[in-house]
Every structure is written in structure tokens, then in C-alpha cells.
Design brief:
heterodimer, A: alpha/beta, 8 strands, B: 83 residues, two-stranded antiparallel sheet, 3 helices, 2 strands, 47% helix, globular
């Protein structure tokens, strides 16, 4: 049986797809057979971040509608062994996903993979519900910013009441907080919520903190998940997150502003 | 710390503190209505009716908040009386 992980947030633009791409790749790099599914029907983007946009022939909805076999729609990652991508349909509307259809595909994938990462669309509509319904674990991607934190709390409420585990009275979905676009400099200046603030409000265990980083845009420009960039702060932070997710004890990093030189310390960083 | 920071107000006065306080209140409020405590709007109407029996107040003069802090729930009813 595969573990089904949903990457969700409520709010858009907080880093769900970046996180899905990096966590799926990170799990595969650790030797686990992993598939990452794009649930954002109509606004497919995971393929771009994974750098396989030109290899999409069939998609998730084709498989659900029995217009293609699952193995025809799955794209094997070229860089990373053990990793496959199931792209979303770009042409259908969100209602094309059905609970029965999604369940059937997940059951089939469950036989061949250790992890199924579901990249949720923003919002709390149909697509987001489909992405979280079958989840065993949820990675709540949150920016240290009021609207993101509020929406994350909303999504937590939905996970606790409307996911399959909630509806069927099973053990609840395991929740993880992933704080993204964290800027230690601004936190130090009191301009940004700090880790403890967000932890306190959402009251779920912290899986990791990804610093705001120029490497993230560079990674999406290139179509290479940022976790593959071992030289970058965000890449290393995602590697840590994957290790922690797999049960390793890894200290949190990049929580303090980078050390500055003497002149910068004296005069740098006004405002 | 650099020289500029010496002249700047420190963390407690930053906007992050305001963000946290606002979030704490709104999240507690929304969780309340999520956990079947959706009675607040109805109670607000009832309280307004009782108050209106004696004093002429408008709907917008009443504000009800349910806040949870350190395992203790606080019900705050604010009625603004006319001059």
C-alpha cells in the first residue's frame, strides 16, 4: 500500500506545486517509488516545474474516462529514477474528476508505488476536495502571512471533517506544517510572522521551513525541482524536509539571516 | 545588529505582532463556527431583540466575539448605546 500525501494550502501562490515537485523528487532520490499527480485540472503546471511539459500525451482525466491506460499517461522522470508524473488535463473542467475515478487510479498506483503525492489546486472547490479526500497525510503549505495562515486553518478544518479518513471515522489524516517563503531578516525586524507564531495559531507539528530564495524561481525557469539544487538554501531545506518526513531527525536550518560582512553589518540593509 | 537598527523600533512593535493578534482572533472565531458553534449569529439576533425591547439600538451597534485563549473561552458582547 502506498502512502497518499496531499500538498494543500487553500490559498494560491504559496508554493504547493514547487513543494509537490521537490518532495516527490526528494522521496524518489531516497530510493522510494514515487508518483506525483497534478489535480489542477484546467491549470496544469506541475509538468512545467518537473520539466516534462513536452512529453505530455495523455492525462489524469483521460485515464479516469478510460480513454488511455494508466501506463500511457504516466511520465517517467528523466533525471530521477523511481519517479513518475501524472499530469492534469489542460482542456477539461474541474468536474471531470470524480471520487470513483480518482479512487480507481489511486488504487492502481498504490500497487506500484510507495508514495503518491497529490498536488492540490488552490481553493476549497471540487479539485481541492478530490486531491485531499483519499489522503493519509497532508502537507499544509503556508506562507508567514495572514491570508495564507487563515486559509491553511480552513483547509485543516476540511481535512478533519470531509476527508475519507474523517467521513469513515478512521485514524485522522496526519498533518504537517510546511512554512514556505520564510524571510528570517524580516522576521527579525518584526515585519513577518515567525515560526512560533504560525505554529501556535495552526497548532500542527512543523515539518520544515523553506527560506524565501532566488533558487525557487531559477528552478521553475529551468524545469528542475529546486530540491535537485544542492547548492541552494531552498534545495537543502527541501532535502531536510524529505528526510524528516521519512522519520530522520534533522535540525531545522536557514532560520536566521545569513551572516553579513563587517561593512554590511555596519551600514547595510537600511529599511 | 547594524547601526541603522539601533534607531529602529524592535520586534514587539512590528506589524507581525498585529498580524498575529488578528489571526488569533479570526481563527478562533472561524474554528468556533466550524465546531458546530454556529449559534453566534442567532444568539446575536436574540440579544439584539432583548436590548431593543428597552433601548432603541441598531443591528450594527452590537458586536459579539467568541475568543479562545489558553483553554479558556471568552464571550464578548459589545453593545453601543445611542447618546
Amino acid at each position: 500500500m502506498a502512502r497518499i500525501i496531499v500538498v494543500t494550502s487553500g490559498k494560491g501562490g504559496v508554493g504547493k506545486t514547487t513543494t509537490s515537485a521537490s518532495i516527490a523528487t526528494g522521496l524518489a532520490l531516497k530510493g522510494h517509488k514515487t508518483v506525483v499527480i497534478d489535480f489542477d485540472v484546467g491549470l496544469r503546471n506541475l509538468d512545467l516545474l518537473m520539466g516534462c511539459e513536452r512529453r505530455v500525451v495523455y492525462d489524469f482525466v483521460n485515464v479516469i474516462n478510460a480513454e488511455a491506460e494508466l501506463h500511457q499517461a504516466l511520465i517517467r522522470d528523466k533525471r530521477t529514477e523511481n519517479l513518475a508524473i501524472l499530469p492534469a488535463s489542460q482542456t477539461r473542467d474541474k468536474e471531470a474528476l470524480t471520487l470513483e475515478g480518482v479512487e480507481k487510479v489511486l488504487n492502481q498506483l498504490s500497487k506500484d508505488f510507495d508514495f503518491i503525492v497529490c498536488d492540490s489546486p488552490a481553493g476549497i472547490e471540487h479539485g481541492a476536495m478530490m486531491a485531499l479526500y483519499f489522503a493519509d497525510e497532508a502537507i499544509i503549505t503556508t506562507n508567514p502571512e495572514v491570508s495564507s495562515v487563515r486559509d491553511s486553518d480552513r483547509i485543516l478544518g476540511i481535512l478533519q471533517s470531509r476527508s475519507r479518513r474523517a467521513v469513515e471515522n478512521l485514524e485522522p489524516v496526519k498533518e504537517h506544517l510546511l512554512l514556505t517563503r520564510y524571510n528570517p531578516d524580516r522576521v527579525l525586524r518584526g515585519e513577518m510572522l515567525d515560526i512560533q507564531d504560525v505554529e501556535e495559531i495552526l497548532a500542527i507539528p512543523l515539518l520544515g521551513v523553506i527560506p524565501e530564495s532566488t533558487a525557487v524561481l531559477k528552478a521553475s525557469n529551468q524545469g528542475v525541482p529546486v530540491v535537485c539544487n544542492n547548492d541552494s538554501d531552498a534545495g537543502q531545506a527541501y532535502s531536510d524536509v524529505v528526510a524528516r518526513f521519512l522519520g530522520e531527525e534533522v535540525p531545522h536550518r536557514f532560520l536566521e539571516p545569513p551572516k553579513k560582512g563587517f561593512l554590511q553589518r555596519m551600514f547595510g540593509g537600511i529599511g | 545588529m547594524n547601526i541603522m537598527q539601533l534607531f529602529r523600533s524592535r520586534k514587539a512593535e512590528g506589524s507581525a505582532a498585529i498580524a498575529k493578534e488578528r489571526l488569533r482572533i479570526i481563527v478562533a472565531h472561524e474554528r468556533g463556527s466550524r465546531n458546530g458553534r454556529d449559534f453566534l449569529p442567532a444568539m446575536e439576533r436574540d440579544i439584539l431583540k432583548v436590548v431593543q425591547k428597552y433601548i432603541a439600538v441598531q443591528q450594527e451597534c452590537i458586536d459579539i466575539k467568541l475568543d479562545a485563549q489558553d483553554g479558556c473561552s471568552i464571550l464578548e458582547v459589545n453593545v453601543q448605546l445611542p447618546d
